[in-house]
# Entry
Amino acid sequence: MSRILKRFVNRPAEGLAMLMLAAMLMLVLLQVVGRYVFQNPPPWTEEAARFCMIWCGLLGAGTAFFHRADPKLTKGLASARALPALLLRAVRWLAISAFVLPWLIYGPGFVFRHWFRATEAMNWNSAVIVVIVPIAGLILLVYAFAQLVGWEQRSGEGGGAK
# Structure
């Protein structure tokens, strides 16, 4: 199951997060050059960089969670005995679910409300930007469930899934 998650969920999410990070850096560079060299920055670069940051941040959080590179409250999970480890994984899953479930519950309405809005500088449909919120929530919940039931392969704390 770990290979399926890695191939069909994590690799595309990781690739898109890296693409968004590169795009954000290029847009910020264009903004700086426009502002300090030409004294006239393109008005759309700030908005586009912000959108790239949102997508990169949410997809990157899921990728970090998949690779177990996220901050943890359960540091001794790998060395704990079977029952305490299961309890710690369950508590971790409940905490993540409590954080992410509102994204999934209110996400469709959030995206729908943005469907009728346009961004200021680029005049894009705002739903294109915020649709990543429920998608990232679903990705995080799938990863959390996979870690709870032991579907992912472990290589120790912080080592990530192989």
Notes: Residues 2-149 form one domain. The chain has five helices and no strands. Residues 155-159 have pLDDT under 50 and may be disordered.
